[in-house]
Specification:
413 residues; alpha/beta; three-stranded antiparallel beta sheet; 49% helix; 18% strand
């Protein structure tokens, strides 16, 4: 009877104050959510565990993408040679660039057609001058709902009056298996996907302090971009070419009227689908298509922060943390079940277990909200809380044993 009373007293001593636990749980949950938001917007992902989403997408994203809104033109085979000069101005050879006369003729054809938007994913770097530049830049400047690709690492050849139509097409969200996240505002400037989205929808994405906004709504600047299995192929499932070869199409007078008809109400994407490839979890995907997939995610989600998703994950975090704080012998129970005494090994098992559980939650929330939270962070916190509580109980038990030994010695004396 006395032993039972003592054990009850010990349990009461070990049981933490529930109000204190709730306060700690609340603040830990808020910290987890804030940390997840900032980690998700970090340009170069750190410990960005998206493998489980990648596996899910690899299984479910089959066949051709629903690209009825787009029409693609491939300039991968359309080249002209320009002279290459050294630092002294002497010609040392020739290098191929995209045929700019062909681009001029094509954009002239499109100017009076009923297109929805034109995205020209062609680089115009300093040192790649062509005799057709002036006429090409003139037609580019005259186009409405038009943008072209620019990059940080090169000096642009474009004139200052035309530069306002340029948008960044740099892909920096790489981790492990290649490109996984698209950055909408790049160094404070619009990306190509964002320019397309803001032009067609009137939305404005901005940064205020460390936070990003789509108009007045809290948003993410980095977003996981899903791909389709067939995005790596030049041919569709029907065996036909997905990207029209621009040189071939323009060389046939009989096809010109078809081009004008086919682009009506569509987003026209012009780029090198042959050579401009980027590594992704699906394989090598053409650069212009990365921008298209990013735009499609913006259209679908606005990259907006989901308060519903925030509420669901907060409830899950709070329930798990509360149980871990109250049930202080959880790690001990795991030790007894698997019959392993090493607390650190149990900690690793706990970390793996929570990662798997949260990975399933991640798949569910991604399927519903198209958002991928950082699962490793709460898994690390849950495992650490459980380990600390277990270690605290272990220390208390050791102290109790020391007290009992001293009592026994006193009784013996």
């Amino acid at each position: 009877m006395n032993q039972q009373d003592n054990s009850l007293k010990n349990d009461k001593k070990k049981s933490p104050n529930k109000l204190v636990v709730l306060i700690i749980v609340f603040f830990l949950t808020i910290l987890l959510q804030v940390a997840d938001y900032f980690l998700s917007n970090f340009t170069y992902p750190i410990f960005d565990s998206l493998n489980i989403i990648i596996i899910k997408d690899f299984i479910t994203q089959k066949g051709d993408a629903p690209d009825k809104e787009f029409i693609y033109f491939n300039v991968g085979l359309d080249k002209e040679l320009i002279p290459v000069k050294d630092e002294f101005g002497d010609t040392i050879g020739k290098t191929p660039i995209t045929d700019r006369k062909l681009l001029t003729d094509f954009l002239t054809l499109l100017k009076d057609s009923d297109y929805k938007y034109i995205f020209l994913d062609i680089r115009f770097d300093d040192g790649t001058h062509s005799q057709n530049d002036s006429s090409l830049f003139k037609i580019m400047e005259s186009l409405d709902r038009f943008s072209y690709s620019t990059h940080r690492d090169k000096e642009p050849l474009i004139t200052s009056s035309l530069s306002r139509k340029g948008a960044y097409s740099d892909f920096r969200g790489y981790y492990r298996d290649g490109f996984i996240r698209y950055e909408f505002l790049q160094d404070g400037k619009e990306s190509s996907a964002l320019r397309m989205y803001s032009t067609l929808n009137g939305n404005n994405m901005s940064k205020k302090g460390p936070f990003y906004f789509n108009d007045s709504s809290l948003a993410y600047n980095m977003f996981f971009i899903p791909f389709y299995r067939n995005d790596t192929e030049l041919l569709g499932e029907n065996g036909l070419e997905k990207y029209h070869y621009l040189g071939y199409e323009m060389s046939k007078d009989s096809l010109l009227s078809d081009i004008v008809r086919d682009i009506k109400g569509k987003i026209v994407v012009i780029g090198d689908f042959e050579n401009d490839k980027h590594t992704t979890y699906m394989g090598n995907v053409p650069g212009p298509l990365l921008t298209v997939r990013a735009y499609q995610m913006l259209e679908k989600t606005g990259a907006k922060f989901s308060w519903v998703c925030f509420g669901i994950t907060s409830v899950i975090y709070m329930l798990i943390l509360y149980v871990l704080f109250v049930n202080i012998n959880l790690n001990d129970k795991i030790c007894n079940i698997i019959r392993i005494k090493s607390r650190f090994f149990v900690y690793l098992i706990s970390l793996i277990g929570w990662s798997l559980i949260l990975g399933l939650v991640k798949i569910a929330l991604y399927s519903w909200f198209h958002l991928a939270f950082t699962a490793w962070l709460p898994a690390l916190v849950f495992s650490t809380v459980s380990y600390i509580n277990s270690y605290r109980v272990y220390i208390e038990k050791e102290k109790e044993k020391e007290k009992e030994k001293k009592k026994e010695k006193l009784i013996q004396k």
